[in-house]
Amino acid sequence: MRKWLRGRLIEVSPQSLLVDDGDKLWRLAVRCEVGSLVAADFVELQVDFAVPGESLESVSAASLLARPVGTGQPFPSPGGDYFRINRDRRRQILTQRGRALATIRGYFSRHDFLEIEAPLIVPSPGLELHLQGFSVADARPEVPPRYLITSPEYQLKRLLVAGLPRIYSLGKVFRSGEAGPHHNPEFTMLEWYRAFAGWESVATDVAALAAELATAIHGSPRFTRHDDRGQKQLIDLSLPWPQRTVRQVVQELANLDIRGDESVDELAQKIEHGGYRIPQPTLRNEQDEPCWAWDDLFFSVFLDHVESKLALPDSDGVLRPMVLCDWPRPLCALARRKPGFPEVVERFEAYVAGLELCNGFGELCDPAEQRQRFVQDLAERQRRGLSAYPIDERFLSALAEGLPPSGGVALGVDRLLMLLLDAKHIRDVLPFAADEL
Known about the structure:
- This protein has ten helices and 22 strands.
- The protein is α+β, with helices and mostly antiparallel strands.
- It has two domains: about 1-80, CATH 2.40.50.140; about 90-435, BirA Bifunctional Protein, domain 2 (2-Layer Sandwich), CATH 3.30.930.10.
- Strand 12 (about 220-225) and strand 13 form a beta hairpin.
- Helix 2 (about 90-110) packs across helix 4, helix 3 (about 155-160) packs parallel to helix 9 and helix 6 packs parallel to helix 7.
- The chain is elongated and about 85 Å long.
């Protein structure tokens, strides 16, 4: 049996050829003249499939389709894209990434969500203290500054106001100043909203979607990956995912009782009395004296002494996800306060193997309270020397028109794929990391 094969030569010898046809690598025995062919050539080959007693398919005819200008240099070049994508598992991971994106869209299609192509250039990138945006200049000087989107949240909520009850966006967002194994300035965010639902509904979506992706890739919600030390971890994403409040886990893992309504000084005293180091003050008060920020104090304990312990296995040696809910009020962002518990807000984050995957809310619908938070965040940004971005007035006008009670969540797709595909760095699941452009 014969077939014609088109591809690129990776290795050439008088005895065999290694050919990449885009789907697989072929090791082929040579049974014709190939003396003029070299690695990097694009070729068309007539392949005779192996018969009993032979170990390899063989090439009975070969013709040159194209020869790169750089032929004669080592191939694959260590600085080239072929080497970059093919040296480890990256090419395989990129193939799996494409299939995972199709699985994500299939999940939302089955659940009657409408996909929205969110705008990438917006009047405000958001005012949360941790956000730093990229500014975009227009050639027309009269046009005010615009920014690359850090999240499609404002725009998607405006569509909830417009009557679209189940919507999602799967696309790129941009955040300046973020670097490290879990960060890239440009990354893929999956964000979705359910009108007339609470945060619990979208938290269930997160678990169901992650379990479906794990099953599509591994055949089961239970799979094995490796930690940063190369040790195997058994992870089980089966539903339901355990839920705990932030107050509970901080009390259990750090032996601190943080309600969420403490003053800065009270929180600092709790941390110090708990035996933890107080971070250096990063701000100055009205008397020009050093002072702390509530969030800096909280995260000095949470990141170092709580988040890392969320990766501990259970008694059976299995790592289960953890949904942390009821976050302290000073970390409210765009979440509404929990009825009957004013010291916390309806915010949740999901962690797997110590990796934060998503951030979701029971959405704040009150335009007056949202404006007040924006004004406070803007003043705090200025106090910390951060960029002062505009308040999105159209978003506030939409809230005044009426946002239905809703739950929403933003999930980092690249991080989830790192978890599912056993990747150690975000670049491993991207076709191009920031420093590869």
